[in-house]
Amino acid sequence: MKSISIDVENLTVAYHGKVALHGASLRIQAGSISGLVGMNGSGKSTLFKAIMGFLKPVTGRVLINGLPIKAVQKKSLVAYVPQSEEVDWNFPVSVHDVVMMGRYGYMNILRIPSANDQRVVRESLERVQMWSMRDRQIGELSGGQKKRAFLARALAQKGTVLLLDEPFTGVDIKTEKAMIDLLLELREEGHTILISTHDLASITTFCDQVVLINRTILAYGDTSEVFTEENLSRTFGGSLGDLSLSKSQIIRRNQNESD
After folding, report:
1. Most buried among 44, 64, 189, 240, by the most CB within 10 A?
2. What are the E-state strand segments in 65-203?
3. CATH number, domain 1-77+161-259
4. pTM for the whole thing?
């Protein structure tokens, strides 16, 4: 039996007195890919930030590989790929420098990169086919290139757990497939991956588990058992007769129903 990598128990998180996530519990197996599915405003980003330790819960706890958040942060065990909206793309920084940020946890207070840091950054960029663009400013990149640059930063961090918040939004099908192929490779290397996505059509192609969220965790478990029309109807509010919905249909539905 596989060990548990992400263990969330009775987690409640609030912003300015308003509850964004209530009584959420889930357990993610080590060495697996889990898809986090829910409408906009359902608490996906809140869950990610709580797992990262960016948000302090009102109740509950999060353990990563059996360790509390503070210990996890010191060990750089969790790497995070944010939504594009969370990044200032006008900030004057190169692709290489963005990826080097993933090495900060390994540097001294002066943050002077070692030869090993430089090697890891190059390997990470090469793995996402971005080494040739290392000197480009991040604001000059296409949507798919931006996603790959921040994925490279996560790889450079060498964490065992990867959290990806909407990595397929704004990318073409070719880029999405390349990213999925890389995620499958990382899973085989032992990484635990939790990825939020609106692309229901691809969930069954690469996710071992599914987590359904709407201000709390509605269901989670093996994709074949959880990814059902009944559960999706509970998640999105209404009937979803066709589970092979396109990305554009899902995004439109979320935009119409988000709060």
Report:
1. 64
2. 67-68, 78-81, 161-165, 192-196
3. 3.40.50.300
4. 0.87
The two tokens of residue 255 are: 């935009």
Domain ranges of the chain: 1-77+161-259, 85-158
> For residues 138 and 149, is the Cβ–Cβ distance under 8 A?
yes
Let me know: does 128 contact 155? Beta carbons within 8 Å.
Answer: yes
> 106-118: per-residue pLDDT in tens?
888 888 999 999 9
* Mode of pairing for the β-strands spanning 59-64 and 33-37: unpaired
Closest to 102 (Cα-Cα) out of 117, 91, 119: 117
Distance from C-alpha of 140 to C-alpha of 53, rounded to nearest angstrom:
31
Residue 252, pLDDT > 80, answer no
- Strand order across the beta sheet in which 4-15 lies: 18-29, 4-15, 59-64, 67-68
Q: What is the dihedral of CA 246, 147, 21, 255, to 10 degrees?
A: -40
Rounded Cα distance between 137 and 135, Å, is 7
pLDDT tens for 198-245 read 888 889 999 999 999 999 999 999 999 999 989 999 998 864 444 444
As a whole-number percent, the residues of the chain with pLDDT over 70 amount to: 91
Whole-angstrom distance, CA of residue 89 vs CA of residue 152 = 16
Residues β-bridged to residue 200: none
